[in-house]
Specification:
- This protein is α+β, with helices and mostly antiparallel strands.
- About 30% of the residues lie in helices and about 25% in strands.
- The chain has one domain.
- The strands form 7 sheets. Strands 1, 5, 6, 11, 18, 19, 20, 21 and 22 form a 9-stranded antiparallel sheet that branches. A 3-stranded antiparallel sheet has the order 2-17-12, with no helix packed on it.
- A hairpin with a 5-residue loop joins strand 5 and strand 6.
- The termini are far apart.
- The relative contact order is 0.21.
């Protein structure tokens, strides 16, 4: 079925419609030739290394990119390029100034110590900013909570959300609803599920190990130099190899959780990780939760429909985005198939394949944003009004504030 605007509207507003849209993509390492296998490096976690689960049939599945990581990769697609006409924005382009640093070129900077004695300061400090679309916890991020003006505005929106009105948060930070949000640091404690959920797993994996040998200048030093360095290292309670002054093998991970040897042989659990081979393939799964979408409401039916259509447009933009899959060093993936196969998942019965046109979805999302554009203009008449400043004093107050979880635990 080719999806038209009428179908999209029904997905957003018809309570009897499908419950989800689902996509399963086959991925390949760039080193693999067509259906061949290649070594990939999953993320490593403290104490456990790779996150590998063993199923009841013995199959091992590895997490390659988590739901949270995928969301953080997808959200920045909504950043508008500098100078983009506001009529082409899909979401408000809110920025947070985290700090200012010297430009290094003006007289105040070039004068060095002399300028400081005279009280000169940098005349053109460079602002280090981050888009709200790049913050890990979106509207609920600590940087937002520490930015006066933005904090109060977002706080009011969360209170409205708790009272059943998603309109204010949809207007201010709609991607917080698309990718899920939890106001754990704010006063509302409101939590909303993701409308778009994506993750990558590798199946039937075989873990590999790595080994390396670092050769320093140690052998070129005379006995006196070596003895002097060993005495100094002992006095400073450090290892010469850690400072690059002695040869060091790279065979075991730095952990005291597991022994390096068992029964006289190297313990695989303590070895340096060398990636995995995914004999069962690598899969990326994307789900758009239409039930959660239709659970969002505004003030009145017209506002409710506008919110749902807008968020559906953004959700489909994120779900169909051809993002780069260079996940980390040693894990560079690509899409195996030329076309994606999306499925509409009904409440009952078999799923059916649907065709999603990326260009048509973007046009739909742009039109669905129109009811919110006048509100953006009224709230932020200039681009400068979209910029808020991180306040260290407010961040310190946040440190003393208990989260909802801490209060529940009686901390």
């Amino acid at each position: 079925m080719t999806v038209m605007d009428e179908v999209l509207d029904a997905w957003a507003t018809d309570a009897t419609g499908p419950v989800a849209l689902h996509l399963k993509q086959k991925l390949l390492p760039v080193e693999a030739v067509n259906d061949g296998h290649g070594v990939i490096f999953p993320p490593t976690y403290a104490d456990i290394g790779y996150n590998i689960d063993t199923l009841s049939d013995g199959t091992r599945a590895a997490s390659v990119d988590s739901v949270g990581s995928q969301a953080n990769r997808l959200e920045p697609i909504f950043k508008a390029a500098p100078g983009t006409d506001r009529g082409r924005w899909l979401v408000p382009q809110i920025e947070v100034v985290l700090r200012s640093e010297p430009c290094g070129n003006c007289e105040g900077c070039a004068g060095g110590a002399t300028a400081k004695k005279k009280g000169s300061a940098c005349r053109s400090p460079r602002k280090v900013t981050r888009s709200i679309l790049e913050l890990a916890h979106r509207a609920a991020d600590a940087a937002v909570q520490s930015s006066p003006g933005l904090r109060e505005m977002i706080g009011d929106a969360f209170e409205s959300l708790r009272n059943g009105d998603a309109g204010p948060l949809c207007e201010l930070a709609p991607t917080s609803l698309v990718f899920g949000v939890w106001d754990s640091r704010g006063g509302s404690g409101e939590k909303r599920p993701r409308l778009v959920r994506s993750l990558i797993r590798a199946w039937d994996v075989e873990p590999l190990h790595a080994a390396a040998q670092f050769n320093s200048v140690w052998k070129l030093l005379d006995e006196g130099q070596r003895a002097e360095l060993e005495r100094e290292a002992k006095a400073k309670k450090t290892e010469l190899s850690e400072k690059g002054l002695k040869d060091a093998p790279g065979v075991f991970r730095k952990t005291d959780k597991v022994p390096r040897f068992r029964d006289g042989t190297p313990n695989p659990e303590a070895r340096v990780l060398g990636g995995v081979i995914a004999r069962g393939g690598i899969e990326r799964e994307v789900t758009v939760n239409l039930v959660a979408l239709r659970g969002l409401r505004g003030r009145g039916e017209a506002e409710t429909h506008a919110i749902r259509k807008y968020l559906l447009g953004l959700s489909l933009m994120a779900a169909t985005a051809d993002i780069d899959l260079f996940l980390r060093e040693g894990c560079h993936l690509r899409y195996a198939d030329a076309n994606d196969r999306w499925y509409e998942v009904p409440r009952r019965g078999a799923s059916r394949e649907v065709s999603l046109d990326v260009a048509a979805i973007r046009d739909y999302a742009l039109r669905a944003a129109n009811p919110f554009r006048p509100r953006w203009q009224a709230r932020w008449p200039s681009d400068e009004a979209l910029v808020y400043v991180f306040d260290l004093a407010e961040a310190k107050k946040l440190l003393a504030k208990k989260t909802e979880e801490e209060e529940a635990a009686g901390a």
